[in-house]
Design a protein that fits this description.
The complex is a heterodimer. By secondary structure, chain A is of the alpha/beta class. Chain A is built from 32 helices and 16 strands. In chain A, the strands form five sheets. In chain A, strands 1, 2, 3, 6, 13 and 14 form a six-stranded mixed β-sheet that branches. A four-stranded mixed β-sheet of chain A has the order 8-9-7-10. The relative contact order of chain A is 0.08. Chain B starts with a helix and ends in a 6-residue tail after the last helix. In chain B, 74% of the residues lie in helices and 0% in strands. Classes of the chains: A alpha/beta, B mainly alpha. At the A-B interface, helix 1, helix 2, strand 2, helix 3 and helix 9 of A face helix 1, helix 2, helix 4, helix 5 and helix 6 of B.
Amino acid sequence: MHLKNTFLQQGHRIAAMLFCFVSLFCMFPLAASAQDIELSLWHAYRGDEAKALQSVADDFNAANAGSVHVTLLQVPDETFANKVFTGVPQGSGPDAFITAHDVIGNWADNKIIADITPYINESDLGVYHETTVKALRYKPNTKNPADAKEGIYALPLAYKSAVLFYNKDTVKNPPKTTDELLQYLEKNTVMTCDKADTNCKPHFGLVYENTNLFFHSVWLNGFGGSLFDENGQIQLKNEGNAQSIEFAKKLNQYIPSGIDGARIKTLFNDGNADMVINGPWFMAELPEQNGGPGLHYGVVTLPQITEPGAPANAYGTPYVTAEGIYMARDTKSSIALAKMKETDPKYPAAKAAEDARRAATIKLMKYIASDGAYKRMIEGKQMVAFKAAYDQLKADNSPETAFVKEVAPVFLAQLDHAQPSSNRPEMGSLWASMQQALQKSLFGGPSGETPYLLFLLLSLIVAGFVFLAKATNPSVTTPQKHMMHIGGTIVSFVLAVPVFMWLKSVQGNNKNINVMDALAEAQSRVSMLKPPAVEEGNPWVLITIIFGIIAILCILGIRAYKKHKAANIEYTDNKTAAAFVAPAIIGMIVLVFLPFIIGAFLSFFAYENGEFTYVGLQNFARLFSSDQASFLDSMSIYFTFVVTVLWTMTNVALHVGIGMCLALLLREPWLKLKGVYRVLLIVPWAMPNYITALIWRGMFDHNFGAINGLLETLGLDRVEWYNEFLTSFAANLTTNTWLGFPFMMVVTLGALQAIPRDLEDAAAVDGASAWQRFRHVTFPLLKPALMPSVVLGSIWTFNAFNIIYLVSKGSPDGSTEILVSEAYKWAFERQYQYGYAAAYAMVVFVILVLYSKLTQFVLNDNTVEAK
Amino acid sequence: MAKKQEWVEDSVGLNKRDRIIKQIAYNLILILVCIAVLYPVVWVVKMALTPNELAGIGGDTSQIQFTLDNFKHVVLNQNQNGDYLFFHQLANSVIVSAITTLIGVLLACTAAYGFARLNFIGRQMGLQAFLVTQMFPGVVMMIPLYIILGKLGLTDNVLGLVLVYSVSALPFCVWNLKGYFDTIPKELEEAAIVDGASRAKIFVTIVLPLARPAIAITALFSFMTAWNEFILAATFMNNEINYTLPVALKQYVGAQSVEYGYFAAGAILVSIPIMALFFALQKHLVGGLTAGGVKG
């Protein structure tokens, strides 16, 4: 292994040298030379911000030619956190990276980022805006609370807070107070149009993501609300929070539902929304201000709050996010140094090299934060934290600064009425819980019975049809059996009626939810999401489990051995087989089984402060008690399980049903254009689903989605798809059906090829109808060929979380999440509770194994019956 | 009786009028389904042709502007060294996918043949094990996998990606191929064995040529797995020039906003090769996928 390792490293080095050589020849000056310190900096910027950062980095490289050289890596935002989080502890992360301040709590606790206090002087921080510096300070949680001391974890680059964007052509005087805002909305909003009125178009005075705490914070802080009490404990139930939500409810009368960033952009750009509460990134989504045709927009600070009951002199006070440049706590060289003994003769040199590297990293961080600030501001349109940049801006009269000159003072002024959001690890679950409270208060809560009732209803209907099929099957001869089947059919269908009525009665959200109750519920949600105190588990539990598994495997092995002995099978091909099968098996063991086994072990551990602690069965106990969530709460694993089963059942039924129907149409030999249809129908399979799923999300939009448009032309009412469980589930289901049916269609087409047509012809001659032919001839022949694909398809669907992640995003209130998507959230979005996520995943695995055993059992049973 | 008449006529092709009616009805249904199926795809195309700052989800259809700028931007995107990133990333994608396909097909064919024909200890168990891997939830495996590849020195390395991809496509491919091998009559091989041919020779000269459709599908699957994957590629690769296309594509998706125009244009460019492959292999697709549906 060691040999291979060095060989690969050598290979790498040679490749790198070749690359340098070639680059030099190509006249691309590559500043790297042997004595350079090579630094890497990761970021998730795009567009102008990325270009400006690159340009600043180039300046840095030019200024430090021969000593330090930095290389940037732009990482897609979606994978940025995971990449840093997995890379840094392994030594394959960057030296520095740029991200928002809300990661600090989690990443400092988990030892991803370094406290830079030892590397800088406190006075160095005076050049940055105080609010942004405040956002980057944090006191980490340590095993011994006495060891904890506050540090600063990044240098601030820019701040991002919401302001009010307005369309200059329609809004002459942007509202200065909430009274003016409400008056404007009253006058200028057209929520829905009469179908008869063809000239009417929905038009909105103001749009913002009103269930997102980041934007709601404008009102929450404005009304004096807060998420923590004086002692720093989470406390959501307070007067200010409640008032702010009441105000949001008032605004909500004028705001289209199910609003998200993409929709806001379209509405504002098309002139269908006059004002938007949004952050500086929104500017990148709007056309450049050039006085040409299209949108002309301006920005102002958020209005004063003049609502009755609001504190005097209250202003819309958004959260501000500080983007900082961080130092990775561990890098390849620091890990190597930590492993070295201090007595090692090479140690002093390595230590000196490491110190030089850290110093260079700090130099880079400072350069980008301060020297590069003006460039980032003008070219990247960033609202920088470096105060002197604003003075420089005032003095600069070049035309390209005109736009920044117009907007920068507004954002700077907003900073006077803004506060940094908390960087504590709990904040992650607060975003989610407050979103729930807002969603419930504004749109009502989903009823928790729905999935259970839907499941019951579908089971009854399926049972009814199974009985019906048996009852009409002529091969059953005993009259008792026949009566039983008829009875079963009647009972199932009759029982389905009250279940259906019940299901119908719980539909429609309860819109009269008390705001305080919603906050109280959010508060209890926070405590569910919080990782419990870690208690070391009894090691014998794990030892017993391991021995138990080994014992079971041994028993199974012995049984299999005896069976084979009894059957007297001789294995003639062992050696040949080894050659054929071994490469694949070895690959599977190393890259699939090993990671899985490690993952399985992790379910007995809790991940805290960057290390795993053995906790025995704590994760499982927590899982099955579902954090004391009721069965009707979407946080309950039982709830999620039922949703997952529903999701799998309905998906597979639709995939197979639609796929089979289309295959039956497409197999007719006389059908023209067969090839064309076949190609067109597999397009959903061939396109990457991360884009088509996004399109589908848009198609279910309330105001502009194609689906509601279709409903309207059919004379039906528009549906708010993502606000209720049933419709949200249907949106996910439709998308996944669209993606999944082609596979089943192709499988069925192939299976049909293998079925001789003359059997059906013979049946036809005997007078069988088309349905009878299918039911008694084609289908029984298809079934065994389709079964493995169906089992595989259901396993895939059970584990397919990206559709839910992209389409409904779990809404309303996480009720459309399935088990794997929950596991994903626990692992990466809820304070990295990796052990708990692993326990979740183990449950998923066990369910799937049981399921496949069950289908095997049913399958064997059927084949026996057929014989 | 009437139904019987209709059936006989349509399969034998006697009654012209009925046949035309059926032809029209079938085509009508299929056209409707195709429209429903292609509608979202048309939206992707529309987004790709709309100027980036206007492109979004939904929106007013009254203001339509068409431009090819998005494609231009995506294709001609350069880094600070003046490298055309798209072409580098395209090359990476092609290399990674092609090697994945090669290794995947090689491993899958040999393993599937072993499982289909050879009589060895643990055959049934091995086959089950392949199926069981499909039940592993990927969430828990990512970090352990990363650590293992790190220990093998394979992070930030095309080889690491290739190995992971080819192995992750393997279970399905083995099952599918094994099913296909099962349908090839054993007698062909038995005759060759009597003639003294080795297993390896039989495998290469007799079985593989017969299994062409299934091999084509295996190749398509392996290729698609590698071509569309982005989470591992984004996690493992530490140099923009080493990214694969889906990672580059995801760079247009930000935390608060998405550059829809570029994203859609990129998505179309990324799907073209897969579409072309599907088109080229569609004959095999039907024959090769299915036969997999035979019990293990």
